[in-house]
Amino acid sequence: MKIAPSIGVLALQGAFDVHAKRLAELGAETCLVRKPADLDGLDGLVIPGGESSAFLWHLERANFYEALEAFVTTKPVFGTCAGCILLAKEVSNPPQRSFGVFDISVERNAYGRQNDSVILHAETSLAGGDMEMVFIRAPRVTRTGDGVEVLAKRNGDPVLLRQGRLLAATFHPELSEDRRVHDLFLKIVQQTAVD
Amino acid sequence: MAHISNGNGNGSAINLRLKTGLAEMLKGGVIMDVMSVEQARIAEEAGAVSVMALERVPAMIRAEGGVARMANPKLIKEIISAVSLPVMAKARIGHFAEAQVLQELGVDFIDESEVLTPADEAHHIDKHAFKTPFVCGARNLGEALRRISEGAALIRTKGEPGTGDVVHAVQHMRQITKEIKQLTVLGEEELYAAAKNLQAPYELVRMVARAGKLPVPNFSAGGIATPADASLLMQLGAETVFVGSGIFMKDGAIPLNLNNDTERAEAVSRARAIVIAATHYNDPKIVAEASEAVTGTMKGLAAAALEDSQRMQTRGW
């Protein structure tokens, strides 16, 4: 693919700036998505960390939920933390609405509050050795479906997962220097565009 | 002061990255002052990203006087268990024991706040000694950098709390932005004198001069009362807003009665409108629609009419 892929970052609230910066560094055209019309022409979307309840509130208020649902059902999407929660099939603590496209179950704030937030180094199947992982009030993936590939774990819990054109992380690769996860997402976007 | 430590924090760069990381997650959202579980639930249902647990909002503290202290731990715990959002709470300036209690309760952010009566006239809390992140108020760049050097992971304008008058929040945001811009054009040798004038550590001054922004997120607080106020501060460079008395209060520093349908609807309409404006701050059409949906009005208190002794923003240094 010759032209840079066009990637949106959902910017209702949360860590959208850091994602957009990282994607731009890797050569993507980026734009911030705040309204349904902002999704037009995008090759992929990042749903960042933030408060998933606040995301849902904005989406439901502005008839945005259905437009975003259509996008995540057909296009490459990368969800981190709150974004991973929105993509999941089931959400608990408390139960809340989600797009249900990623065949995983997720428990919100499962490792505790901010005082339990932590930076770890763990193994990943991505080439290049251990990866730094920044967990902030992180969710826990409690179940993975058959079509889900686990790319990294934290003490046995899946933390980086892929299901075809969908990528999800319970940690924040946008807060580390390591660019491998965003790199992988750009490859997924480019591959999907070619197919 | 080095021996005064709760044993939990390590002051490391890793710890600071986790603290500013949470602040990143709050950007573009609204942090609302709440005085009860009921208010906290309304805030969550209205799209807030975080709540600040308080016994009295600034407008009440201003009206009632007396010594304003950390909220009762029982209230804070009830609010923590009532909502899934991060919960913040305020400690008095310099009162590290209140901060230790708040950390113990598991609050997600501690606001070392001029809204409460200061406990120490010379020293702010050594925030590196804590695992819980801190937010602190500032009126200018020097003050912001002094707080950051003490370990603050988030800066907010002080504004003039409890007034509903946005003028000082605007002044403080413009001041910080202007001073940052001025640093970016200075030569290396000029930064030493700049650090002296700002009364801030040279390393931080140099960092700001190179990056053109603060090393931690920059939010706004103090008198923000309407959706257009939120839009204004965000367009001036605030990455999100704190709203205090603007949501749950009516004139005369009395809280809206949430058991009364009309008054409850008013609180909900204000909360929703500010959340919409914080996200769509650059879209006047949406800010207009959000403003239109607000019922009731808040009279407010002109900050210019306050005596110096009534000002909260001059607390701290």
Features:
heterodimer, A: 195 residues, alpha/beta, Rossmann fold, three-stranded mixed beta sheet, 5 helices, 12 strands, globular, B: 317 residues, TIM Barrel, eight-stranded parallel beta sheet, two-stranded antiparallel ribbon, 13 helices
* Mean pLDDT, all residues of chain B: 92
- Count, helices of chain B: 13
- Estimate the helix proportion of chain B, in percent: 40-55%
Q: Report, as a whole number of angstroms, the end-to-end distance of chain B.
A: 18 Å
Report the portion of residues of chain A in β strands: 25-35%
CATH architecture of chain B: Alpha-Beta Barrel
Record the strand order, biggest sheet of chain A: 2-1-3-4-12-11-10
Biggest sheet features of chain B: 8 strands, parallel
CATH class of chain A: Alpha Beta
Q: Any guess at the CATH architecture of chain A?
A: 3-Layer(aba) Sandwich
**CATH class category of chain B:** Alpha Beta
Number of strands of chain B: 10
CA-based gyration radius of chain B: 19 Å
Would you mind describing this structure in some detail?
The complex is a heterodimer of chains A (195) and B (317). Chain A has 195 residues and is α/β, with parallel strands linked by helices. Chain A has one domain (6-194): Class I glutamine amidotransferase (GATase) domain (Rossmann fold, 3-Layer(aba) Sandwich), CATH 3.40.50. Chain A has helices at 16-25, 52-61, 65-74, 82-87, 180-194, and strands spanning 6-10, 29-33, 44-47, 77-80, 88-92, 102-107, 118-122, 131-135, 140-144, 149-154, 157-163, 166-169. A 7-stranded mixed beta sheet of chain A has the order 2-1-3-4-12-11-10. In chain A, strands 5-6-9 form a 3-stranded mixed beta sheet. In chain A, a hairpin with a 2-residue loop joins strand 10 (149-154) and strand 11 (157-163). In chain B, helix 6 links the parallel strand 5 and strand 6 (154-157). In chain B, strands 7-6-5-4-3-2-1-8 form an 8-stranded parallel beta sheet. In chain B, 43% of the residues lie in helices and 12% in strands. Chain B is built from 13 helices and 10 strands. Chain B has a single domain (20-181, 214-297), classed as Aldolase class I (TIM Barrel), CATH 3.20.20. Chain B has helices at residues 13-26, 37-45, 58-64, 73-82, 96-105, 141-149, 167-184, 191-198, 202-211, 227-235, 245-248, 261-279, 284-292, and strands spanning 30-34, 50-53, 87-92, 109-113, 134-138, 154-157, 218-219, 241-243, 249-250, 254-255. With 317 residues, chain B is an alpha/beta fold. The two termini of chain B are 18 Å apart. At the A-B interface, helix 1 and helix 2 of A face helix 1 and helix 12 of B.
